[in-house]
Write a structure and sequence with these properties.
This protein has helices at about 5-10, 10-15, 20-25, 30-60, 65-110, 120-150, 155-180, 185-194. By secondary structure, it is mostly helical. It has a single domain (about 30-194), classed as Up-down Bundle (Growth Hormone, Chain: A), CATH 1.20.1250.20. Helix 4 (about 30-60) runs antiparallel to helix 6, helix 4 (about 30-60) packs parallel to helix 7 (about 155-180) and helix 5 crosses helix 6.
Length: about 190
């Protein structure tokens, strides 16, 4: 498969390639569905955890709304730059392995988001963190389509509902951590362990 085909591939077309979703196809449909839903939940929880602590990070680094925008711009740049890489990795390594690599980025880099010394370091770290996010998101969407195909009915809405449930959990945990003034790096570190 050439690079242009990988970049232009949809989750549906990737999910039809046995080499891409081989591990999903070997699991029982129920186990595969639970695994994908759990992964969506975790990614939603991680996103909401970060979002809930943006005010603390902003205060810690004395960011103005404009400098916070610069930091968040790093997140978007990293995500955009990683999309072609994500598609290639899903094709070459399969969705399960690609999601695992993405989760390693989540776990290793998440606590560092609370330790950055300035806006530029935060922007760069958010860009690298976005790489893990994109790897995971592309891989789990491809896996979700593969599970849908096994069930022969739409399930993607339920997977994205699990992302939202994770978002609620992450928001509540983030609010609790903020209310006791837990250091951001410690909060993110504990979330990475969990």
């Amino acid at each position: 498969m050439v690079m242009e085909e990988i970049v232009l591939s949809t989750p549906q077309s990737l999910a039809q390639q046995p080499a891409v979703v081989g591990s999903i196809r070997r699991q029982t449909p129920r186990r595969a569905r639970i695994a994908v839903a759990t992964t969506f939940f975790i990614t939603g929880m991680t996103f909401a955890t970060w979002a809930a602590r943006i005010p603390a990070v902003s205060e810690q680094l004395h960011l103005t709304p404009g400098t916070l925008g610069i930091a968040l711009f790093g997140l978007n740049c990293g995500s955009l730059l990683s999309l072609p890489i994500s598609g290639t990795l899903v094709v070459r390594l399969r969705s399960r392995t690609t999601a695992f690599i993405g989760f390693l980025f989540y776990c290793l880099l998440f606590p560092l988001l609370g330790m950055m010394p300035n806006v530029w370091a935060l922007a760069c770290m958010l860009g690298v963190y976005a790489l893990g996010s994109s790897l995971t998101n592309i891989a789990i969407n491809v896996a979700g389509v593969a599970v849908e195909q096994r069930y022969n009915r739409p399930l993607m809405g339920s997977f994205h509902a699990f992302w939202s449930f994770g978002g609620v959990a992450g928001s509540l945990i983030g609010a609790g951590a903020a209310s006791i003034n837990m250091p951001v790096w410690l909060h993110f570190g504990l979330m990475s362990i969990v």
